DUF4239 domain-containing protein (Edaphobacter dinghuensis), 256 residues
Amino acid sequence: MLSYGQSAFAIALALVASMLLVALLNRFWPVENRKIINDVNAWQMGVLGTTYGVILGFMLFTVWNDFRAAEMDVALETASLINVHRLAVGLPSSQKEIMQKLTVQYADAAVHQEWPAMQTQRENHSGGIVLQQMWQTLTSTQAETPGQVSSLDHMTSAMSNLSERRRLREEQHENSLPAVLWVLLIVGGIATVVSSCLLGNDKRWLHYGQVLALTFVVSVTLAAIADLARPFEGAVAVAPTPLQRALVIMQQSAPQ
């Protein structure tokens, strides 16, 4: 995904392109001639602009909801990991130490290896390897007292939640908007801006301002959709802050 600088450059490029188009139209197709078709063109632009605005708003709402869901899933993944770390206290001594060390390793791998990889569209399964070791430790644990049996049951539930949230994070990282939707958004945006350029207006400065405002809104919204559609990449991304805090907490309580 684009950085803030790259997004700003793309928006500026769209603004310049729209201004050049208006200038070319004013030069080769005089305003007096374009005013003749204003009645028809304005009506068509109204329908096109309304339709495109609904599509654009719906897409922005959808990707924002998905972005918030990704943030929530990371928080829930962290909560499950902390639960595993704390519930390990009820296991036999040897399994307790192993499990608590593995939870610290999982958080460390997620923060320092998986997150940088996700931000650059690379795969990294270091956390998954640690998770597999956690499952192996859990399934090999033999409960000897009723308290250990209870802890083992709660650990199994917490581990299942952790695995589920991790799977959702991996899916959210891999998912992207279908190409057909990007074609619709980009072509629709170009058609809407070009339609506004075709209007004839005796006050040229006002026409330039209207086209500039429309282009700015469309281009900024498209940039926002592009960034939010990949929640773990780009300038606006889900941060590993919950896992970072959990790592500090677990490191303080884990056996050395």
The first helix runs from residue 4 to 28. The mean pLDDT is 87.
